[in-house]
């Protein structure tokens, strides 16, 4: 089983490669990376999952946001250290390959494929929900069955399919071009959320926070549904990750040591402040029951506050700005595919980079088609938790890689050093394991099935074609 533990090594992973090894173009500065992080983090989670979190935890959803954010912050610090040490495409997959071994790297990469593809689908469905609301307001003659997936009472979600393919087309134009579009849309998104907070402030009522924790703290089942603060945290955890996509841009950062650190840590700090302000405003402005089941909770709250025009603007901002999340995660997915293909663990034609645009066009198109297909036929609630499982696996692997390297190679140069690394690494791993155990049982079963399938592919195909396989 030596193939299971064979490692590429940090020096080999970061070495300059010859012309025969596909490389991405370094074209991104730290403003692009901060925008990439904020664009990935602030999205469907705050626009659509606020209601789901409130339904599971009541006003204590505030605490759920705080717990999920704290775990993500610890993981973000580990990512910052690893990304600056190994500034090449692949994120947690690449770190695991260099530190732990190929077999484990495959599991992490396979989980990242699950995470990024499903996140793209989740956000496309969320965008479709807001787009459908605007379509209804405009009274356009589009059948309801064509705006919802089968599990949501329709036949196909055409708005979700449209946006997934449109974002894929934009990414194929080039990394810098899509990064500029992302930066503009991120500004639109932040301005819209600031407007939401401003409209909610006059209606703030502290009585809406009592009882604060109606469903308890620990995750427990009620009528087949996991309830409580930790159950909500395991779902809205989705609202915080996105910074990990920055690490997939390592190979395209102009100054990796500086730009990646600012991008990862800076975007997390900005987004934690935004989330806490929006969540407090939402719960303070309206009783939880009034928006807990809404597909567009922020717009719903503004309508209840008798601000129909502001609600329409929030919906419009979501329609305009949510594609930034799809863009970020589809970008990350294509880079993970690219890294695995370059290492021989996936078909190497997927590692082909356009000489003109400097991006992996084929794998970006493949990612867009898969995301569009899932978004068109799967309901939001079942996709979210499964994406979380893949993310938690990647976070655990990155934190573990950081800790292993601190012990194995303490003298290796680190451009960013995780403070109190034993504590931060442990909190990240234990926190992620606890959140993982709080996921719905169905999600855990699907995740195990996904990885069992992945292991079969690795054992019978990928390990023999690996760049490290004996010739």
| Element string (H = helix, E = strand) | HHHHHHHHHEEHHHHHHHHHH
The CATH topology is given as Amino acid/polyamine transporter I
Structural class by secondary-structure content? mainly alpha
Percent range for β-strand residues: under 5%
Number of helices, where a helix is a run of at least 4 consecutive DSSP H or I residues: 19
Q: Largest sheet, if any?
A: 2 strands, antiparallel
Radius of gyration: 21 Å
Q: Report the CATH superfamily.
A: Amino acid/polyamine transporter I
On the 0 to 100 scale, the average pLDDT is: 82
The order of strands across the largest sheet is 1-2
Taken together, the total number of domains comes to 1
Portion of residues in helices?
55-70%
CATH class: Mainly Alpha
Low-confidence stretches: 16-20
Number-wise, the strands total: 2
**Overall 3D shape:** globular
Please state the second-level CATH architecture: Up-down Bundle
Distance between the termini: 17 Å
Main location: membrane
Subcellular location: Membrane
Protein name: Amino acid permease
Pfam family, one: AA_permease_2
